Amino acid sequence: MHVLHVVGARPNFMKAAPVIRALEHGVRQTLIHTGQHYDASMSDVFFSQLGMPTPDVNLEVGSGSHAKQTADIMDRFEPVLRDACPDVVLVYGDVNSTMAATLVAAKLLMRVGHVEAGLRSFDRMMPEEVNRVVTDQLADLLFTPSEDGDRNLCREGIPIERIHRVGNVMIDSLVRLLPVAQQHKMNGYPQRYALLTLHRPSNVDDPSKLRGILESLLEIAADLDIVFPVHPRTRQRLDVSGMKTAHLHLLEPLPYVEFLALQRRALVVITDSGGIQEETTYLKVPCVTLRANTERPITVTLGTNVLVGQDGSALKSEVRKILDGKGKQGSIPPLWDGNAGARIAQILAKE
Ligand code: UD1
Question: Is residue 130 lining ligand 1, measured as CB closer than 6 Å?
Fold first, then answer.
């Protein structure tokens, strides 16, 4: 069997790594990087820490509007896929690369497997939601992380025999590298801190919204250090706006292991990321999410996650509760056990 994996952006890499590893023996594999993320700190360092092979092809599409980025990926991926002619194309998550590669493969009548299928925020303002819906409609094999994913797909008319609940592949990477993160020396960081990430267009693109969020964060920072690895999108917005961030510990984007080490020791994680809601649930670290909805509701129902939207006072009161020891006690969702990649490999072997 020949499996071709497509990755493009930072959150894809920790999802693809365990699947590639699980298929190591007896399967021919090709790895395509679309180049959606291209800075070394957003891409190369993840490949090395996650032990991923060097991509066979990098499409080098870079940044652009959604239409341009998607179109460039499709245009450059099509001849590569025609040449490779794999038995299955595996796509990951919900980034533009995921949807673009799926469209190309479906039109070439190739089988597509979507890893992390079925997640829904029901919010079409999020570009990722559009990517999820399109990808899931076209995929032949839908690998879901949790039961809500199965239900969403059934509601959209996806035949049940295409849906395979395998658990959370991203947690596979976490489980494997947690011992390395535990050994990681945390020199230069405060003893007690909140860890912050912020990059959703809905939070950072509008200067008044970004200013509102920052004002609440600066109030929190009066009591608790805030460590903030800054995504390139957010860095640009901060630079242009000239907003004051002197009381936050701003860092460049961090490698996987360093970020995991910081998450596990944080008193609270404040984020608008998708994957971090899951990682904190696994680590049982309280998470306050700066979004009104989540495509990962299990992190709220079972895990440590609380949604506060863009409400600064809700953010401050949640952080206060956590510091007073009254934060949510979560549990780890079923099948988030480090073996999701192996379950995908077993299903593919029967194909
Ligand atoms: C993308 C994903 C998002 C994911 C995020 C994680 C989509 C629609 N969005 O958002 O789901 O949570 O990745 O990081 O696919 N840039 C750099 N260097 C890079 C990459 C980007 O400087 O290596 C800058 C560029 O100015 C670019 C901007 O960041 O315009 C945004 O990059 P883009 O890939 O368009 O989206 P993300 O915000 O990273």
Answer: no
Collect all residues with Cβ–Cβ distance below 8 Å to 24 and sequence separation of at least 6: none
Integer-rounded Cα Rg, in Å, for the chain is 20
Residues 151 and 86: their CA atoms lie apart, in Å, by: 30
Distance CA 27, CA 345 (A): 10
Counting atoms of ligand 1 from 1, which one is nearest the CA of 69? 35
Domains along the sequence of the chain with CATH: 2-168+336-349 (3.40.50.2000), 184-323 (3.40.50.2000)
Q: Which residues pair with 28 in a beta bridge?
A: 2
Contact 274, 128 (CB under 8 A): yes
**Tokens at 305, concatenated:** 């996650």
Question: Which tens digit of pLDDT belongs to each residue from 209-249?
Answer: 999 999 999 999 999 999 999 999 999 999 998 888 889 99
pLDDT range class, residue 58, cuts 50, 70, 90: very high
Check if 262 has its Cβ closer than 6 Å to any atom of ligand 1. Answer: no
Closest residue to atom 35 of ligand 1, CA basis: 63
